[in-house]
Amino acid sequence: MKSRNHILLFFACIPFLFGSTLHAQETAEEVSFKMILSKEKLGVNERLRVEFTMNKDGDNFVPPQFDGFNVAMGPSQSISSSWVNGKRSFSKTYSYILVPTARGRFTIKQATIEIEGETYKTLPKTIEVTAAVDKPSDQRTVDDVADESLHLVAEVSDASPFLNEAVTVVYKLYVGHSIRVTNYRSLDNPTYNNFWSQEIDVSKPKPKNTTYNGKPYLSVVLKKVVLYPQKSGKLDIEPLALEIYVDVPTNRRDFFGGRIYTQTTKTVSAGSRTLNVKVLPVAGKPANFGGAVGDFDFSVTTSKKELNASESLQARVEVSGKGNLKLFQLPEPELPSALEVYEPEFDEKVRTISTGMEGKVANNYTIVPNYRGKYPIPSISFSYFNPKTAKYVTLNSDEINIEVLEGPLGSEENTVAATNNRQVVVPTGKQFHFIKLSPNLNKIGAKYFFGSSKFFLMLFGPLLLIPIAVFSFKKREAIASDVVGNKIKQANRLARKYLSTAKKELGNKEAFYVALEKGLHNYLKAKLKIETSEFSKEKITNILNDKSVSSDDVEGFISLLKNCEMARYSPFSDVQMQHDYEKASEVISKLDKQL
């Protein structure tokens, strides 16, 4: 009886034992780094395939010395990543094809790699090389030919740029003449953290004859990205990984003598690149420097210089040239207080080419004078950093004088406050007029106004308007007392203002997400008064958290920025664009109520 109870107790404990074991396996997966040989004994005329594989991504891979062998191919790198039932499976492999140089016993020593800050080593293995065999069993396979003939390279225009200086990354695929690439797809796209990024459209890749490692290849540009670093120091560019479908020739022939091809798939990676971003120099930095980096021209112009009071004119502050045109603020003019100035309308005509942004940005101010006089618009300055000369440049606009010809005269206080130069308002016309003393009076006649129908209409007409005025007043009072409703309406109007351009571009993926990202950034610029050079997702998250914005709204805002980045290299449907637009409008409304 006791033994039976012990057996039942043992089976009852089995789920707990295996459950704890499975839980430990799920929570902490051990790092695996090992060397795999295609064979441990081969003839001197055969080939040996050596693979170093790991289950987690690592850096600083150091291969062993292949004593007794020549490296025929390699290293070729392949990456495999998949999700099965919510669990990620990852594998990275470095492959070599070796040819023995003599008979004997040779040892392939340890290879090393750094994974998560720890150094891992493979176990050494011994290979026996015998006399030549009649029929070598290791002729080059289809995968060997594909590995030797495919190389993905990330070419960086400048590995040591200044902060906010344009850097172009070109991803080139080098293909050997013996194989044919039929198609490819992205497996892992870089996210470009700490960069403002813009992908350049490569609609029809054109192969060109070139050389790679001294051998003839065909090269094709698959992707171009322009980056503007938003932080100084060492910034990593994550690797691009592609799965490529390849036709590889075999030794077989068809009925007509044509070579038969076999299709295979290979995973290639461009490898990670590191930029050493230089901080902008402190020496000679102007006090009004706003983060502009490039080569620019600056101007302030007005649509007219003479007008009458209550008429309007347009003042335009414009910066043009090449550089980070979307990532700095324009200087604001200092206008006399007697001029009524409206919020500026932003105008942007910028395109991004392979060397960076070029075009112009401007603020258009609508100005309405109230009094006669002369009003000067003082000169304003704009400063930028030129990375080619590594110096700061300051440009000054010309002073503009506005003359108001006709209109009411301002008081002495208005005249003094109207200009910093204390220029006196110059009145025009006659100042003293002759007063007529002899009146020209006419008799009213027989028809008197008092007692007429017009008299009674004017007498009792206002009384009839009293109920209408009372009803209108109560209606306005009810609307004004609805604080929550007014806040919602104001927030919705604000969201429509910043997202109006994005709404017009619905259906056009690239233009929509560029306009959406710009709208989100402009909202933060207007609301939080921060420089665009500070626009990293981490900075935005910290600022919103400091402002006591709810975590859900912060995550919603950051997810929209991530969608804007991913849309540059991922397919997005019209339904997704409509969803992102509605989500952006909702997030801006919620943020505005909290800020």
From TrEMBL:
TM region(s), chain numbering: 455-473
Superkingdom: Bacteria
Pfam families: BatD
Signal peptide: 1-24
Keywords: Membrane, Signal, Transmembrane, Transmembrane helix
This protein's name: BatD family protein
Source organism of this protein record: Flagellimonas spongiicola
